[in-house]
Structures are given as C-alpha cells and as structure tokens.
Amino acid sequence: MHLKWMPFKKQLIILTITLFGLSSLQLQSAEAKSPIDKHFGEPVSVGAPIQQIAIFESAYGQEDGRDVMYTTVNGKPAMLNVIDLADNKLLRTFPLPDADSSWAKTVAADGTLYIAGQSKMYRYSPQTKELDDLGQAIPGETSIWGLVADENGNVYGGTYPNAKVFKFDPQTKLFTDYGTMVEGQGYVRSIAYADGIVYAGIGTVGHIVKLDPVTGDKSELPIRDVPVISSLPFVYGLDVRGDYLFAYLNGNGTTALLIYDRARGVWLDEVYHGYGGLDVSPEREGKVYFVQNRKVQAFDMTMRQVTDTGIAYGTGFRSTGWVRFPDNPELPGETLVTIQFGGKTALFNFESGVHKTLPAVAEGQPTLIQALEKGPDGKIYTSGMTSALGGAFDPVTRTHSTYPMGQAESIGAFGNDVYFGIYPKAEIRKLDTTLPVQTDPNKPNPNPVSLFYMEEDQDRPYVQTTGGGKIYFGTIPYYGKLGGALVAYDPASNAYDVHRHVVHNQSIVGLAYRDGKIYGSTSIRGGLGIDPTESEAKMFVWDAVSGEKLSEFTPEIPGAAKSPIMISGLTFDKDGLLWAAADGILFAVDPDTQQVVKSKIIYPGVTDYGMWRPIHLRWGEDGLLYTDLHGQLTILDPETMEHKELGIKTALFTLGDDGNIYYAQETRMYRIPVSDAGEEDAEPPVTEIALMPEQPDGKNEWYVSPITFTLSAHDEGSGLETTQYSWDEGENWITYDGSPLQVLENGRHALTYRSIDKAGNEEAPHTIRLHVDREGPAIKWKSEIPEEIGTADELKLAFELQDEWSGADSDSIAITLDEKRVDHGSALPLFHLPLGEHTLTIRATDLAGNESVHEANFKLVTSFDSLKQLVYRFAELGWIDNHGIAKSLAAKVAKGKIEAFIKQVRAQTGKHISKEAAAYLIRDAEALR
C-alpha cells in the first residue's frame, strides 16, 4: 500500500472518508449483520474426470533373458510399468510414492533401473522385481529432469529450481550435491556422461557445463552460434554417442539439434532445425537415429553425414533402445523401439524398412486437474496436467466423457463454444458443444479445433473473458521472459491482436468486461527462470474499441500488510462494482474513481500469495460471492460482508447450473450440495458407481483385466454422512473413503453399496455382480515329454485343460509343432522331423477369452536301437515290403555295419523300400557314422 503526500487539510478529509468506509464495512455490530442463510452439504466425489496414459519417456533392459521396457504413467500416483516387448505384455506395475510424474530414467551397467519422480529417486531391481524409495535427492529441489549412470554404477541427476547436479552412490546409498551449475538459471534440464565428465544442459538460457564429479570442478562448453537465434534457449536434451555430444535446443521458437565432436573439440557445421523428441538413439553399426521434420534421419558417425531413412514419424523419440524380436521375420536383427505419449510402442527396423506401432498395454492413471469451468451446456469441463485429454462431467446424468485436449490453463465460453488456453506456446482451441467430438481429419466438422498460437513469447493463457463480440485472454510469457499479453480474438473474422506489456514486465491474471472496456489485473511474475523486476501488482483499464490502455493503478486496499504481488478474480456485481482478490482479501473497486469502496480481510496475515493461477470469484443465483481465496472455498455476502469458510482447500472450483459447488483436488472432482437453510430432508441419498472397464472386457460377461470402481453419492438435503460397500451382500459394511478401488482376484464377486445422509435417511442397497477371470486355463500334461526322443518314437499329446472360474474352452485348442499346425487327436510320428531341436506349442483359451500358451522343447535324436526300430516300423507300414530285407537291415544295424546298411537301402530304394522310407533311414544311418 502506498501513501501519497498531500496538503494536510485535504489529506484529513480523505482520511476521514476512508475511516468511515472501514467502519461501515468491518466494524458493524453483530446485530446489524445477517448470517449466510445457506446449507452446504458434505463434499461428494464425482470421480476422476480424466484418466489416461500419459508417458514422458522410457528405458530399456532385460529381465529373465527377455527384453523389457520401463516406462512411467503420470498420475496420482505415477506408476512404473514393466513391459515385455516381444509379447507386448504388461508384466507388473509399481506406484511411485509421492510422485505424480517422471521425466527421467536410466539403466546402470548391472541392469538396475533408477527412476526420478518429482524430487525423489527410486530404484528397481530386475532380479528381485522390487522397487526401493531412495528418498529426496537434494533438499529444496522440487524436481529432477535428467538421469545418467557412469561405468561404476553411480547415477547423476539434474534439478530445478536451482540448476543443481547430484550424484547417487549405490554402494554408500548417499547423495552428493555439486551445487548450482550456472548462477541465475533454474534448470539442469538434461544430463549426459562420458569419460569421467558429466555434461549438464541448462535452462532457461542455454548453457552446457562440464562437471568433474571427482574434483567438483566446473567449466563451460561454449555453444556455437545458431543462425536466427538471438538468445540460446533450453538445452533440452543431451546425449553422448561415441565421440559426439548431441545437444537439443528448445525455445524461442526453435527446435534444433547441434552436434559437438569431442575428439576434435569442435561443433559440426550443420544445424538440424525441426528436431523432434527428447533424444537421439543409442549407436548401432556406426549410426545414430533421430527425428527431424517428422522423418527419421540417420547420422553416420564416421562420415559425419545425415541421410533420410525414408521412414516418416509424426512425433519424436521419447528415449529409445535396440531390441530383438526373434519370432518376427519382418523385424530381423535389431529394431529401434520408443514409447509414445499415449502408451503405444513404436518400432523401426532399418534393415527391412518396417515401421509399426504396438497397442498400448500400460495402465491409465487419473490425471491431475489443471483447469475447471462450467460450459455453456451446463457440463463441467476440465483439463489435465500434461494431458492429451480433457474431461466433461454432466451434472444431470452424472456421467463423464473425454475429448482430445492439451494442458489447458484456462477454460471459457462464448455462445455454444468452449475455449481452451493451452500450454505450451499459448495455443487457443475451441470445442463446439453442439457437435459431436470428431478427430478424423478425413471427415467434416473436426471438433475440437486449433484456432491459433499467440506467439510473441507467450506461453500460458491463464484467464479469459468475453464482451463486445470478442474473447479476451490474459497470458504468462515463456520461460525466462517477462511481460504477459492481452489478446483480443474476434470469432467472426478469426482475427486476433496481441498486446504485450500492457503493464510493464507483468503477466495478466485477471480480466472482466464492461461497457466497452476491459478491466485487468496482474501478477509481477513472468515465465519460470527469471526474477520479477516489479514489486507490486497493478490493475488497468483498456479501451476495447481503440485497443489502447486508458489507465493503470495500484489499488489502496485497507488493512493490507503490503502491496500484493498478484491481483486476480475480477468480476462485476449487479451494482457495477469491480470485485477482485489479493492475498487473503476480497475487495470492490468503483470503476469510475478507481478507489476501493468495499473490502474484507478474510484470511489475515497472508502476503505474497500466488504466482500465476488466479483466485476465482463466482456469483451465485443467490447473490452471494463464491471464491477460492487463499486456496480455500469461501462464501461472501457482498451486502453485509458476512462470510463463511467451508474448510475445504482447493484452487479450482465453479458453480453448476444446479446451484451446487464443483471443485477439484488433485485428480478428483467433488460436488458440494447447496440448499436453503432449514429445509426438511426426507429423501435418501443416491449413490452411483463408475467402473473401469465400463463393461466386461472378456467373453461371456467376464472381466479379464482388473476392475477399478469408484462410488459417488449426492444428497440434496442434509448432506451425505457416509457411503459404504460390502462384499457379502450387506452382512458386513466397509466405509468408502473416496479412493478408487480395484477388484484383482479371480472369482464371482457381489458388490453391494449404499449411502446414508445426515438426517439418517438410508438408501436401499444396490448390488452388482462382477465376474473376474484374469488367467488362462492351466495346461496339465498327463505324462512329461522327455528332453530327447528317438526318431522311431511317437509323441503322445496327453494333456488336459483346467480352469477354475469361467471354464476351459475345449474347442479353442491349437497345437503347433515348429509353428506348423498338427492334429492333437492322435499320437504324432516323429521320424519325418529333422534331427535336432523342436518346439511343441499348445494354445488354449477359457470361456472368458484368456489364452494360455505352453511350450515343450525336445531334441529328436537317433541311435542304433532307434534305427533298428525304425526299420521294423517302416515294415509294418508297408514302406519296406519284403520281410527278409527288413530282417537283414535290422541285423546290420545291430552289428554296427552302417556302411553296409546304407548300401543295401540305396540298392532297394524304389524296389522294396519306398523313396520316403529310404531317405529317413539313410539320414539316421549317416548321423551314426
């Protein structure tokens, strides 16, 4: 708050008026005030609106002799997934405690996997299949952005917000803090290691630092000049491959790959603009691969040249590994593998030229809610952090739906359309609520659509408002930049104007429209990685017609301990006063005089609250002002200035058309029933169940994957007291705590649920039956197959199928011998097989559709005894039609006279011995020479 000097008499008059205003607002007697006459029920979970597979990167290793991929699905909590690549099968998952995302993994030389999750490190053993929580790497650092291991198993990581590098020693289990790499920078965004040197890629302004982890000495590797780049952006990726350091620059409108020759100490001349992804591939046969302009390129490390592989790829590599698929002839040798954001596995075989994708097998996780707002159709729209989906909840049907959407920082409405302000790159997208979601580019009416990117160094559109036929956005600039923008978009002409630095070096986090003017408010913060230059937030008035700023002012807020660094939540009341929020205070400004005429300190002592996310103010149909001031749901009566605190922490809420409050906490949305106080409650609550999968995903009404269920209850009257569920149809009840629950065990389950409200009204129980069979039938051999079998023997396929739950499907049995289908109804003669190793495979399913595969390996061998028995067998078959010849051949074998045996067979071939029989006899005899 600022006090301006003025002549004493004039100052006295104004001071008297101000004190009178304070008295009328804050010092009224209790008798003069009326309490907020509303009843607010208990919060009711309405589920996780966005559940998806969201993956940043991957790592590759081996378990039990098989190639596996390690990847993490972001969520609350983030989940480590171990995937068998040859079978494209999810082997196991592990929650990462205290982490909702992971940007980095590395596999040490001994096969141990290290994972970064937020500020913590985790370790997974491929031998024990166990995950260890190693704890926080460096106190005070909030996230780890890169990991790499050296030849001794030490692991190095880079952090934010102090751009530090650390080491984890697996022998001592201790972390070493090497300190900040570049003063004034926030990120070690990438990290690499080679020949005793750690390379740290810095942001927001690009640097590469060489660190000696033994001495702790640091030196900078100067980055070559890049045409068209005035300021080096993030060094977003670093990889050492052979003698080369590959550096990926991202920011300031540039994505470029630079290559440094470590042996010669020079940067290569070429700059590869349009680089995509997070890294280049590991080296194979003197080449590494990367994506440029949506094409896979090969860099020859000897010739130092790049060639096009001819394979197109619409996204970028998210870490890669070389993997063998021995049973897939179209993927000979080694195949390059990477993961996609949505969980699909992409394969690139440069020998055959094949590029294909495998279906996602990772399990989706609930996504952290980033934005929430009511749409023009009454649905509650949400956005997820680092999400590719948005969510829409219908309060009438109480159903969720999703649509393609990036991370929206703000959601607003104009007409029948919902507008989303997307991070990164300040993109604006539109969803038409009158049209179905349609993402096929070959069909008409795509929905949603991308309208434009703001550019001008803008990154996060955090607020929206409408007026005069236009939509206005307030933004936060890019990393390392100051100066947000006011952006005016005209839907009729599809044109927009960007006005940056409306308030010098500040971001816009509050907007409201009235009578041809835009009223705005700011945060002193810019993008991450730069300190603010201003000390106090501002309010401003903008002429929507001329596109010019009319005024800028600092509101004098009575009782404020200091000038706020963020003012937000702008909204007009029915009397034309402009309400706003700062720290723990709500206040109203007269737009004509720009003076604060009403205020209420609700949360005393709060200062410097907020960075970008605005405080939200919403008017109810009841005339009350609802807000998440100081991150807590609060209701204010603007006439009496009475307020009510609901004791619920949230930074995102809205009011539904039903008058109820909808708010977000982490991954879940909740509903607070709002009703007039004193209403009688004679109605029981209503409980609804949400299942994932929604329907049985196997055959014959069986589930073949884990079932996740959530219960959501609502009560219009006294509010919800409890929700309960039972596995024995109501004999014993368990209190439901709002968390998703899983049904993992096979069996025929009966799930019963109900709710009870605070007035004692009890809902009639509901029961659903869930049949779960996650395992294929057991294939039981009645007699073991020996490791070695003679050529004269038969293979008897004596086995049975057992399945405890859905039952075995006997019609599904398929048997192959060396990948060729065979009849399982009789014994199999083996003499027609070549000598050596063979594989018998049995496949069968149960009635739920689960498949079991059993393989038996044996070696077909010959011996003198086996050859003699083969002679007699061929005689029985009539392939040797002379008993004397058969007896003579058997005698020669018994005496070990193989040459004479072969001579006699050849002499009788086509006469008394069939050509087929002769071939088998000579083959075995020659093997016994």
Q: Could you describe the 3D structure shown?
A:
- The protein is mainly beta.
- The protein folds into 5 domains: 241 residues, Neuraminidase; 309 residues, Methylamine Dehydrogenase, Chain H; 87 residues, Immunoglobulins (Immunoglobulin-like, Sandwich); 84 residues, Sandwich (Immunoglobulin-like), CATH 2.60.40; 64 residues, no CATH class.
- It contains 5 helices and 77 strands.
- The strands form 21 sheets. Strands 20, 21, 22, 23 and 24 form a 5-stranded antiparallel beta sheet that branches.
- Helix 2 packs antiparallel against helix 5 and helix 4 runs antiparallel to helix 5.
- The longest helix is centred in the N-terminal third of the chain and has 19 residues.
- The radius of gyration is 36 Å and the shape is globular.
- The N terminus is likely disordered.
What would the keywords be for this entry?
929 residues, mainly beta, Neuraminidase, Immunoglobulin-like, 5 domains, 5-stranded mixed β-sheet, 77 strands, disordered N terminus
